[in-house]
Amino acid sequence: MIPVNRLAVWLIASFVALVSLPMSVAGTEPFGNVAVLLPLVLALELLFYFVITMITSPRMGLSAVFGLSVIMIGARAGCTLIGFALSEVVVPGGRDASFLILYVGNLLSLAFQIVTIILVTPHILSALKPGMVDKEMMSKLGLSGFASGSSKSKVPQDHAMPSGGFVQVFSYDELEGVLRKTAGLKGFVLFNNEGLVVWSDLPGVGDIDSLASQMMSLTSQIGRTLEDSGLNRMQKVVSQTKDSTLILHELNANFGLVLVYDNQTKMVEIDAKASVLVKTAREFLQWKYPGLAVA
After folding, report:
1. Backbone conformation region of residue 63, classed left if phi is above 0, alpha if psi is from -120 to 50, else beta
2. I want to staple 126 with a disulfide (CB 3.0 to 4.6 A). Which of 41, 47, 147, 169 is the partner?
3. Which CA distances in Å does 251 have to 92, 128, 294, 295?
4. pTM of the full predicted structure?
5. DSSP per residue, 86-121
6. Where does the pLDDT of residue 143 fall: very low under 50, low under 70, confident under 90, or very high at 90 and above?
7. DSSP letter assigned to residue 67
8. Coil, helix or strand at residue 197
9. Same domain, residue pair 69 and 170
Protein backbone atom coordinates (compact mmCIF):
# COMPACT_ATOMS: atom_id res chain seq x y z
CA MET A 1 0.00 0.00 0.00
CA ILE A 2 1.17 3.52 -0.78
CA PRO A 3 0.51 6.13 1.93
CA VAL A 4 -1.17 9.20 0.46
CA ASN A 5 -2.06 12.45 2.17
CA ARG A 6 -5.83 12.64 2.68
CA LEU A 7 -6.01 16.23 1.45
CA ALA A 8 -4.26 15.18 -1.76
CA VAL A 9 -6.82 12.40 -2.25
CA TRP A 10 -9.71 14.85 -1.90
CA LEU A 11 -8.09 17.31 -4.30
CA ILE A 12 -7.34 14.67 -6.94
CA ALA A 13 -10.76 13.02 -6.72
CA SER A 14 -12.64 16.32 -6.90
CA PHE A 15 -10.47 17.56 -9.79
CA VAL A 16 -11.13 14.39 -11.79
CA ALA A 17 -14.86 14.65 -11.13
CA LEU A 18 -15.08 18.34 -12.02
CA VAL A 19 -13.14 17.85 -15.26
CA SER A 20 -14.83 14.63 -16.40
CA LEU A 21 -18.40 15.85 -15.83
CA PRO A 22 -18.39 18.50 -18.60
CA MET A 23 -16.45 16.14 -20.87
CA SER A 24 -19.19 13.53 -20.52
CA VAL A 25 -21.88 15.92 -21.78
CA ALA A 26 -19.90 17.48 -24.62
CA GLY A 27 -21.99 17.50 -27.77
CA THR A 28 -25.37 17.42 -26.04
CA GLU A 29 -27.95 20.09 -26.71
CA PRO A 30 -27.98 22.97 -24.17
CA PHE A 31 -31.17 23.27 -22.13
CA GLY A 32 -31.42 27.00 -22.84
CA ASN A 33 -29.80 30.07 -24.35
CA VAL A 34 -26.33 30.02 -22.72
CA ALA A 35 -25.82 33.77 -23.21
CA VAL A 36 -28.96 34.42 -21.16
CA LEU A 37 -28.27 31.65 -18.67
CA LEU A 38 -24.67 32.67 -17.85
CA PRO A 39 -25.30 35.74 -15.60
CA LEU A 40 -28.28 34.04 -13.94
CA VAL A 41 -26.31 30.86 -13.18
CA LEU A 42 -23.32 32.83 -11.88
CA ALA A 43 -25.51 34.93 -9.57
CA LEU A 44 -27.38 31.92 -8.19
CA GLU A 45 -24.17 29.92 -7.85
CA LEU A 46 -22.45 32.73 -5.94
CA LEU A 47 -25.44 33.08 -3.61
CA PHE A 48 -25.58 29.32 -3.06
CA TYR A 49 -21.87 29.07 -2.22
CA PHE A 50 -22.10 32.13 0.04
CA VAL A 51 -25.00 30.72 2.09
CA ILE A 52 -23.51 27.22 2.39
CA THR A 53 -20.12 28.63 3.44
CA MET A 54 -21.75 30.87 6.06
CA ILE A 55 -23.51 27.83 7.53
CA THR A 56 -20.52 25.47 7.53
CA SER A 57 -17.88 28.07 8.49
CA PRO A 58 -19.48 30.63 10.83
CA ARG A 59 -16.08 31.83 12.07
CA MET A 60 -15.22 33.28 8.67
CA GLY A 61 -15.87 36.96 8.04
CA LEU A 62 -18.21 38.12 5.28
CA SER A 63 -15.31 39.19 3.04
CA ALA A 64 -13.62 35.81 3.48
CA VAL A 65 -16.88 33.98 2.74
CA PHE A 66 -17.39 36.08 -0.40
CA GLY A 67 -13.81 35.48 -1.49
CA LEU A 68 -14.11 31.73 -0.97
CA SER A 69 -17.37 31.71 -2.95
CA VAL A 70 -15.66 33.46 -5.86
CA ILE A 71 -12.79 30.95 -5.67
CA MET A 72 -15.30 28.08 -5.83
CA ILE A 73 -16.87 29.61 -8.95
CA GLY A 74 -13.42 30.05 -10.45
CA ALA A 75 -12.51 26.44 -9.62
CA ARG A 76 -15.57 25.15 -11.46
CA ALA A 77 -14.89 27.40 -14.43
CA GLY A 78 -11.24 26.32 -14.58
CA CYS A 79 -12.09 22.60 -14.40
CA THR A 80 -14.77 23.06 -17.07
CA LEU A 81 -12.24 24.80 -19.32
CA ILE A 82 -9.82 21.89 -18.87
CA GLY A 83 -12.63 19.44 -19.62
CA PHE A 84 -13.52 21.38 -22.76
CA ALA A 85 -9.88 21.38 -23.93
CA LEU A 86 -9.53 17.64 -23.29
CA SER A 87 -12.77 16.88 -25.13
CA GLU A 88 -11.42 18.75 -28.16
CA VAL A 89 -8.23 16.72 -27.98
CA VAL A 90 -10.10 13.41 -27.74
CA VAL A 91 -12.54 14.22 -30.59
CA PRO A 92 -11.08 17.18 -32.56
CA GLY A 93 -13.98 19.09 -34.09
CA GLY A 94 -16.24 16.12 -33.65
CA ARG A 95 -18.39 17.60 -30.95
CA ASP A 96 -20.51 20.68 -31.40
CA ALA A 97 -19.84 22.15 -27.95
CA SER A 98 -18.42 25.42 -26.70
CA PHE A 99 -16.98 26.25 -23.31
CA LEU A 100 -20.15 28.15 -22.31
CA ILE A 101 -22.34 25.20 -23.26
CA LEU A 102 -20.28 22.91 -21.05
CA TYR A 103 -20.19 25.51 -18.28
CA VAL A 104 -23.88 26.41 -17.98
CA GLY A 105 -25.70 24.60 -20.79
CA ASN A 106 -26.18 21.17 -19.21
CA LEU A 107 -28.30 21.09 -16.09
CA LEU A 108 -27.10 17.67 -14.93
CA SER A 109 -23.41 18.49 -15.28
CA LEU A 110 -23.94 21.88 -13.64
CA ALA A 111 -25.71 20.36 -10.64
CA PHE A 112 -23.14 17.59 -10.13
CA GLN A 113 -20.22 20.01 -10.38
CA ILE A 114 -21.74 22.34 -7.76
CA VAL A 115 -22.54 19.43 -5.42
CA THR A 116 -18.98 18.11 -5.82
CA ILE A 117 -17.50 21.48 -4.87
CA ILE A 118 -19.85 21.85 -1.90
CA LEU A 119 -18.96 18.38 -0.62
CA VAL A 120 -15.22 18.67 -0.99
CA THR A 121 -14.70 22.24 0.26
CA PRO A 122 -15.34 21.48 3.99
CA HIS A 123 -12.76 18.67 3.81
CA ILE A 124 -10.18 20.98 2.28
CA LEU A 125 -10.94 23.77 4.76
CA SER A 126 -10.74 21.43 7.76
CA ALA A 127 -7.36 20.16 6.54
CA LEU A 128 -5.89 23.57 5.73
CA LYS A 129 -7.44 25.43 8.66
CA PRO A 130 -8.63 23.13 11.50
CA GLY A 131 -11.62 24.58 13.34
CA MET A 132 -12.72 26.80 10.49
CA VAL A 133 -15.66 24.50 9.78
CA ASP A 134 -18.31 24.42 12.51
CA LYS A 135 -17.89 21.37 14.80
CA GLU A 136 -21.56 20.39 14.72
CA MET A 137 -21.68 20.68 10.95
CA MET A 138 -18.49 18.63 10.62
CA SER A 139 -20.04 15.90 12.73
CA LYS A 140 -23.14 15.85 10.51
CA LEU A 141 -20.93 15.64 7.43
CA GLY A 142 -18.85 12.84 8.97
CA LEU A 143 -15.74 15.04 9.19
CA SER A 144 -15.20 14.99 12.95
CA GLY A 145 -12.64 12.21 12.83
CA PHE A 146 -10.88 13.74 9.84
CA ALA A 147 -10.61 17.18 11.43
CA SER A 148 -9.60 15.70 14.73
CA GLY A 149 -6.83 13.77 13.08
CA SER A 150 -5.61 16.83 11.24
CA SER A 151 -5.57 19.09 14.27
CA LYS A 152 -4.07 16.55 16.63
CA SER A 153 -1.26 15.87 14.23
CA LYS A 154 -0.39 19.56 14.52
CA VAL A 155 -0.26 19.54 18.33
CA PRO A 156 3.45 19.71 19.05
CA GLN A 157 5.23 17.47 21.52
CA ASP A 158 6.52 19.16 24.65
CA HIS A 159 10.03 19.73 23.29
CA ALA A 160 8.61 21.45 20.20
CA MET A 161 6.24 23.86 21.95
CA PRO A 162 6.57 27.40 20.62
CA SER A 163 8.50 29.68 22.92
CA GLY A 164 6.33 32.56 24.07
CA GLY A 165 3.49 31.57 21.76
CA PHE A 166 0.51 29.26 21.99
CA VAL A 167 -1.00 26.22 20.32
CA GLN A 168 -4.28 26.87 18.50
CA VAL A 169 -7.00 24.44 19.60
CA PHE A 170 -10.74 24.35 18.94
CA SER A 171 -12.16 21.95 21.54
CA TYR A 172 -11.66 20.92 25.16
CA ASP A 173 -10.37 17.55 23.97
CA GLU A 174 -7.67 19.24 21.90
CA LEU A 175 -6.79 21.53 24.82
CA GLU A 176 -6.45 18.50 27.08
CA GLY A 177 -4.24 16.84 24.47
CA VAL A 178 -1.85 19.83 24.52
CA LEU A 179 -1.76 19.90 28.32
CA ARG A 180 -1.20 16.16 28.68
CA LYS A 181 1.79 16.26 26.31
CA THR A 182 3.67 18.52 28.72
CA ALA A 183 6.50 16.68 30.46
CA GLY A 184 6.19 16.70 34.24
CA LEU A 185 2.52 17.74 34.25
CA LYS A 186 0.47 15.41 36.47
CA GLY A 187 -2.90 16.99 35.78
CA PHE A 188 -4.95 20.16 35.52
CA VAL A 189 -8.25 21.75 36.51
CA LEU A 190 -9.97 24.46 34.47
CA PHE A 191 -12.66 26.30 36.45
CA ASN A 192 -14.87 29.37 36.10
CA ASN A 193 -15.24 32.40 38.36
CA GLU A 194 -18.01 30.65 40.30
CA GLY A 195 -15.69 27.85 41.33
CA LEU A 196 -17.29 25.27 39.02
CA VAL A 197 -15.09 22.80 37.16
CA VAL A 198 -15.25 23.31 33.39
CA TRP A 199 -12.74 20.62 32.40
CA SER A 200 -10.26 18.57 34.40
CA ASP A 201 -7.86 15.66 34.28
CA LEU A 202 -6.29 15.20 37.70
CA PRO A 203 -5.88 11.55 38.72
CA GLY A 204 -5.69 10.78 42.43
CA VAL A 205 -7.78 13.76 43.57
CA GLY A 206 -11.18 12.83 44.98
CA ASP A 207 -13.19 16.04 45.19
CA ILE A 208 -12.03 18.20 42.27
CA ASP A 209 -15.08 20.48 42.59
CA SER A 210 -14.10 21.34 46.17
CA LEU A 211 -10.49 21.91 45.11
CA ALA A 212 -11.56 24.29 42.33
CA SER A 213 -13.93 26.18 44.61
CA GLN A 214 -11.32 26.60 47.35
CA MET A 215 -8.62 27.64 44.88
CA MET A 216 -10.96 30.19 43.32
CA SER A 217 -11.79 31.57 46.77
CA LEU A 218 -8.08 31.69 47.67
CA THR A 219 -7.24 33.53 44.47
CA SER A 220 -9.99 36.07 45.06
CA GLN A 221 -8.89 36.75 48.64
CA ILE A 222 -5.20 37.11 47.83
CA GLY A 223 -6.02 39.27 44.80
CA ARG A 224 -8.12 41.68 46.85
CA THR A 225 -5.44 41.86 49.55
CA LEU A 226 -2.75 42.74 47.01
CA GLU A 227 -4.90 45.36 45.31
CA ASP A 228 -5.93 46.91 48.64
CA SER A 229 -2.23 47.16 49.48
CA GLY A 230 -1.53 49.06 46.29
CA LEU A 231 0.27 46.19 44.57
CA ASN A 232 -0.30 44.90 41.08
CA ARG A 233 -3.06 42.43 40.32
CA MET A 234 -2.10 38.83 41.02
CA GLN A 235 -1.59 36.55 38.02
CA LYS A 236 -0.67 33.22 39.61
CA VAL A 237 -0.30 31.42 42.95
CA VAL A 238 2.37 28.76 43.50
CA SER A 239 1.99 26.08 46.15
CA GLN A 240 4.17 23.05 46.82
CA THR A 241 3.30 19.81 48.56
CA LYS A 242 5.53 16.85 49.32
CA ASP A 243 5.27 15.45 45.81
CA SER A 244 3.65 18.15 43.67
CA THR A 245 3.86 21.76 42.62
CA LEU A 246 0.50 23.48 42.08
CA ILE A 247 0.28 26.68 40.08
CA LEU A 248 -2.99 28.57 39.85
CA HIS A 249 -3.20 30.94 36.89
CA GLU A 250 -5.89 33.55 36.42
CA LEU A 251 -6.67 33.28 32.69
CA ASN A 252 -9.15 36.16 32.54
CA ALA A 253 -12.09 37.57 34.46
CA ASN A 254 -14.07 34.35 33.96
CA PHE A 255 -11.67 31.41 34.17
CA GLY A 256 -8.76 30.05 36.15
CA LEU A 257 -6.38 27.15 35.50
CA VAL A 258 -4.62 24.93 38.04
CA LEU A 259 -1.56 23.09 36.70
CA VAL A 260 -0.14 20.31 38.85
CA TYR A 261 3.50 19.27 38.22
CA ASP A 262 5.66 16.66 39.86
CA ASN A 263 8.44 17.92 42.10
CA GLN A 264 11.10 16.65 39.70
CA THR A 265 10.31 19.53 37.33
CA LYS A 266 12.25 22.70 38.09
CA MET A 267 10.45 26.02 38.45
CA VAL A 268 12.33 27.57 35.53
CA GLU A 269 11.06 24.75 33.29
CA ILE A 270 7.56 25.08 34.72
CA ASP A 271 7.45 28.81 34.01
CA ALA A 272 8.56 28.34 30.39
CA LYS A 273 6.03 25.56 29.74
CA ALA A 274 3.20 27.17 31.69
CA SER A 275 3.47 30.36 29.61
CA VAL A 276 2.53 28.43 26.47
CA LEU A 277 -0.20 26.41 28.20
CA VAL A 278 -1.81 29.48 29.78
CA LYS A 279 -1.84 31.37 26.49
CA THR A 280 -3.24 28.33 24.71
CA ALA A 281 -6.08 27.98 27.24
CA ARG A 282 -6.79 31.73 27.24
CA GLU A 283 -6.94 32.00 23.45
CA PHE A 284 -9.22 28.96 23.23
CA LEU A 285 -11.65 30.28 25.87
CA GLN A 286 -11.77 33.73 24.29
CA TRP A 287 -12.59 32.08 20.95
CA LYS A 288 -15.18 29.71 22.41
CA TYR A 289 -16.94 32.34 24.56
CA PRO A 290 -16.55 35.60 22.60
CA GLY A 291 -19.40 37.25 24.50
CA LEU A 292 -17.68 37.00 27.89
CA ALA A 293 -15.43 39.71 29.26
CA VAL A 294 -11.77 38.82 28.88
CA ALA A 295 -10.14 41.64 30.83
Report:
1. alpha
2. 147
3. 67, 29, 8, 9
4. 0.46
5. HHHHHSTTTS---HHHHHHS-HHHHHHHHHHHHHHH
6. very low
7. H
8. strand
9. no
CB of 209 within 8 A of CB of 227? Answer: no
Helices (H), the chain: 6-24, 34-56, 62-90, 99-104, 107-128, 135-140, 144-153, 172-180, 208-228, 267-288
Range of the domain at 59: 6-149
Strands in 185-192's sheet, in edge-to-edge order, are 197-201, 185-192, 255-262, 244-250, 236-240
**% of the chain exceeding 70 in pLDDT:** 76
Q: What's the rounded Cα separation, in Å, for the pair 143 and 155?
A: 19
Do 103 and 46 fall into the same domain? yes
Q: Of the ranges 70-74, 157-161, 222-226, which is most confident?
A: 70-74
Examine the pLDDT at 129 and tell me if it is beyond 70: no
Q: Give, rounded to a whole angstrom, the gap between the first and last alpha carbons of the chain.
A: 53
Measure the CA–CA gap between 250 and 247, rounded to whole angstroms: 10
Q: How do strand 185-192 and strand 255-262 relate by DSSP bridges?
A: antiparallel
Query: Based on the domain organization, do 129 and 36 belong to the same domain?
Result: yes
Residue 161 has pLDDT above 50, yes or no: no
Q: In angstroms, rounded to a whole number, what is the distance separating the alpha carbons of residues 4 and 147? A: 17
Which residue would you say has higher pLDDT here, 270 or 27? Answer: 270
Helix (H, G, I), strand (E, B) or coil at 246: strand
Whether residues 139 and 202 fall in one domain: no
Q: Are both 143 and 190 inside the same structural domain?
A: no
Residue 239: strand, helix, or coil: strand
**DSSP designation for 158:** G
